[in-house]
Amino acid sequence: MLPEAEMLKYPVNEEMEEPFFTFGVIADIQYADIDNGYNYTKTRMRYYRNSLSLLQGAIQEWASERFVPQFILQLGDLIDGYNFTYKSSELSLKKVFTEIYKLETPVHHIWGNHEFYNFSRKQLMESRLNSSRLQGTLTMSPEDGGDSLDSFYSYHFSPSPKFRLLLIDSYDFSVIGRDPSSDKHIKSLKLLKQKNPNEDKNSPKDLSETRFVQFNGGISAAQLNWINDVLETSDKNNEKVMVAGHLPVHPDSTDPICLTWNYPEVLATLQSHPCVVAYFAGHDHDGGYFQDQSGVHHLTFNGIIETPPESQAFGTIYIYEDKMVLRGRGLIPDRTLFYRNSK
Ligand SMILES: Nc1ncnc2c1ncn2[C@@H]1O[C@H](COP(=O)(O)OP(=O)(O)O)[C@@H](O)[C@H]1O
């Protein structure tokens, strides 16, 4: 990170020089039409109804920015799992879509654990939450052609020459969201049982690796190979790539309970490609930030669901030749983030 004095040289305000493009980022809205309640550990309030108001506020601010965002990156958990219990999944999704699409800018959706509490992968693929149709190519695991029980939801696109956004599927290797008869479900369950002997697989009690809980997942070898191929091409083309997934991949950017199951492999892959400049995640509602030893910026966005009604938690990223500038709102701090190898 830059020393404080250096940071001040790059003010984050409306006077900023014109960027190549900007985009909005928001995480863990988890809307439900139910009263406020606590998280599992009873340490944080969840504002289920107010999350829609905070989303409305974010949309209004993005609409009034000098540079209207080219797209919005929605980092997953758009509606809460409680909607499934109350049979309100479709209705809540419709309400959230009504707000989010008022901006008339494309929204790129990541799938988090709460998407799988509400919908099957097939339903997600057929809904507007499948944003791969917007731009870029949806690529499924190569051996199955895209429509098998084991295919994953990952794609990439170039918002501006020399820049690329790569959305990855953190629940590719997972118990939730996978059909119990699928190969990936069977293998994930085996791994989860090995790593987590607790009866309740959502409980991290007494685990040495607390990330091995049911509400997390990992990246399959097929997806990792595909990611590797995409990044190799971007390296050759001198692109800057921002990668996004629901689950964080660096232990210093999050509470370790929220990490991707096989984060060491994913991290090593990202670090080995000089094109990768940043990784965006949600899931950990407290947020986090860390620049790793390779210079990759790890940004974990605070969750809207646990953001007090009088505050906010979203950001706008301004893309320049040598840096990204995060203009944060509410709980999200401003940051000037130089690309690795840019100085
Ligand atoms: N420490 C824990 N022990 C047991 N179950 C837990 C624990 N933390 C969360 N859970 C359960 O795991 C599921 C996902 O947790 P939740 O907090 O809703 O996820 P998120 O952080 O994505 O909102 C819920 O059913 C929740 O009750």
UniProtKB/TrEMBL annotation:
EC number(s) reported in the record: 3.6.1.13, 3.6.1.16, 3.6.1.53
Stretches that traverse the bilayer: none
Gene3D superfamilies: 3.60.21.10
Leader sequence segment: none
GO molecular function list: 2',3'-cyclic-nucleotide 2'-phosphodiesterase activity; ADP-ribose diphosphatase activity; CDP-glycerol diphosphatase activity; manganese ion binding
Positions of the Calcineurin-like phosphoesterase domain: 22-286
UniProt keywords, alphabetically: Hydrolase, Metal-binding, Zinc
Cofactor(s) listed in the protein's UniProt record: Mg(2+)
SUPFAM superfamilies from the UniProt entry: Metallo-dependent phosphatases
SUBUNIT field: Monomer.
Family: Belongs to the ADPRibase-Mn family.
UniProt name for this protein: Manganese-dependent ADP-ribose/CDP-alcohol diphosphatase
